[in-house]
Amino acid sequence: MAYEIEALGCKIFYCDPMASYQKPHVENNHRLLRCICPKETDLYALGLRSQADLDLVFSHINSYGRESLHSKSPIQVFKFYYPDSDLLDRLHIKEIDPDDIVLTPDLIKK
User: Fold this and answer.
1) pLDDT in tens, 59-87
2) Which of 15, 33, 67, 96 could form a disulfide with 22 if both were Cys (CB 3.0 to 4.6 A apart)?
3) Could you write out the DSSP letters of every residue in 27-91?
């Protein structure tokens, strides 16, 4: 998958272990992920049981507006720069209406 992202003109960088300061936006995504999937929680018991469940989680996270993006979501920014790309479809990431975004464990509870 990395080569497909790089084919879009994006560069992929890897952070050093335990150096979260190198990519603060990744840490923001991690914080949002922990809102839905708290640490030390049995994710299966919570309801995270399939790739489709994980795709749903990241659809909500990536539909959430970011201050650093002038209140736009990562999905909106991606669609602006790559309007003809089918990458989001291939990743099974869907844009969620801002009024329907859920960033709590209720998103995947079954």
Assistant:
1) 999 999 999 899 999 999 999 999 999 99
2) 15
3) HHHHHHHHHHS-TT--HHHHT--SHHHHHHHHHHHHHS-BGGGTTB-HHHHHHHH-TT--HHHHT
Q: H or E element: which one contains 6?
A: helix 2-7
Residue spans of the domains in the chain: they are 23-107
CA distance 39 to 37: 7
Q: Which two tokens stand for residue 10?
A: 């994006």
CA proximity to 25, closest of 53, 76, 79, 61 = 61
| Residue 21 in this model has a pLDDT that exceeds 80 | no
Region at 108 (left for phi over 0; alpha for psi -120 to 50; beta for the rest): alpha
d(CA 7, CA 68): 25
Residue 45's pLDDT band (cuts 50, 70, 90): very high
